[in-house]
């Protein structure tokens, strides 16, 4: 094979491997981001549900206290009505003591009823905030996931095309180079690195001066003595 033809093939392969890296990075990034967004959404949904449950619990407690207040008030009214009808002074004292206890209980219940009312308001607010945050995250997340799904699909299509093109080009290489390129690609990609400030762009070892020049100027196909990758010039755009 003509050395210049082979060199140009290697330059093309370097470009394809770079594109492949970009496509795969997009796929990996979007996959992780999608997972993260989904678990974030699950968290917001769980937060909203538990805030809602807490609000509901507080309301149940408040209603229970209100019912208890009503009971005590009814009992108190009945006992007060009995006061005039009691003839016996010991019975009267007992009744008065009972009334006093009921009044004290009513006081306590009303105090805790007020605190519960505050609690219900706070928990309702919390639940409202949690619901809004959940819905906002759902909207934001869905938009981003939709956008990423589109980009992911494009990256997957690009990956497929790039791999086909890499296959096609490596198929044109002589047997030994093809084997070498394929082994590097599967084990320590890229198989073809760019020369970077006189160094191999694959392992960053400095190349001998003449090799670096050959690679930079596209005069000869160079292999890195350190990592065995092919080293070619930067893309000419
Ligand atoms: Zn190297």
Could you explain the architecture of this structure?
There is one protein chain. This protein is mainly α. It has a domain at 8-171: Helix Hairpins, CATH 1.10.287.1490. It is 78% helix and 5% strand. The chain is built from four helices and four strands; from the N terminus they run αααββαββ. It has helices at residues 3-82, 89-172, 175-187, 209-217, and strands at 192-196, 199-200, 222-223, 230-232. Strands 2-1-4-3 form a four-stranded mixed β-sheet. Strand 1 (192-196) and strand 2 (199-200) form a beta hairpin. Bound molecules: zinc ion (ZN). Residues 200, 202-203, 205, 224, 226-227, 229 line the site of zinc ion (ZN). Residues 200, 202-203, 205, 224, 226-227, 229 line the site of zinc ion.
Question: Keyphrases for this structure?
Answer:
237 residues, mainly alpha, Helix Hairpins, 4-stranded mixed β-sheet, 4 helices, rod-shaped, binds zinc ion
Give me the secondary-structure topology.
Elements: H1 3-82, H2 89-172, H3 175-187, E1 192-196, E2 199-200, H4 209-217, E3 222-223, E4 230-232
Parallel strand pairs: 1-4
Antiparallel strand pairs: 1-2, 3-4
Helix pairs in contact: 1-2
Bound molecules: zinc ion.
Zinc ion is lined by residues 200, 202-203, 205, 224, 226-227, 229.
Shape verdict: rod-shaped
CATH class of the domain at 8-171: Mainly Alpha
Can you tell me the residue ranges where pLDDT is under 50 for at least 5 consecutive residues?
A: none
CATH topology name of the domain at 8-171, in short, is: Helix Hairpins
- Report the major sheet: 4 strands, mixed
Radius of gyration: 40 Å
Q: Can you give the mean pLDDT?
A: 96
End-to-end separation? 26 Å
Strand order of the largest sheet: 2-1-4-3
Which molecules other than protein and nucleic acid are bound?
zinc ion
Number of helices: 4
Order of helices and strands: HHHEEHEE
Classify the beta-strand content into a percent band.
5-15%
Structural category is mainly alpha
């Amino acid at each position: 094979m003509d050395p210049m033809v082979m060199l140009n093939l290697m330059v093309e392969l370097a470009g394809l491997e770079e594109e492949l890296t970009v496509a795969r990075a997009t796929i990996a990034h979007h996959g992780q981001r999608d997972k993260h967004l989904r678990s974030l959404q699950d968290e917001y949904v769980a937060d909203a549900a538990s805030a809602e449950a807490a609000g509901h619990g507080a309301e149940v407690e408040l209603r229970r206290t209100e019912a208890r207040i009503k009971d005590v008030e009814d009992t108190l009214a009945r006992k007060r009505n009995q006061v005039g009808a009691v003839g016996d002074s010991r019975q009267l004292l007992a009744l008065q003591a009972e009334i006093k206890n009921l009044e004290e209980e009513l006081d306590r219940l009303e105090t805790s009823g007020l605190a519960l009312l505050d609690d219900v308001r706070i928990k309702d607010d919390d639940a409202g905030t949690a619901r809004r945050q959940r819905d906002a995250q759902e909207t934001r997340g869905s938009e981003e996931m939709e956008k990423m799904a589109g980009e992911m699909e494009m990256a997957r299509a690009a990956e497929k095309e790039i791999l086909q093109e890499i296959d096609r080009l490596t198929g044109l290489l002589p047997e030994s180079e093809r084997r070498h390129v394929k082994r590097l690609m599967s084990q320590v990609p890229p198989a073809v690195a760019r020369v970077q400030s006189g160094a191999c762009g694959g392992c960053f070892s400095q190349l001998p001066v003449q090799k670096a020049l050959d690679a930079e100027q596209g005069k000869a196909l160079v292999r890195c003595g350190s990592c065995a990758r092919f080293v070619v010039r930067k893309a000419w755009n």
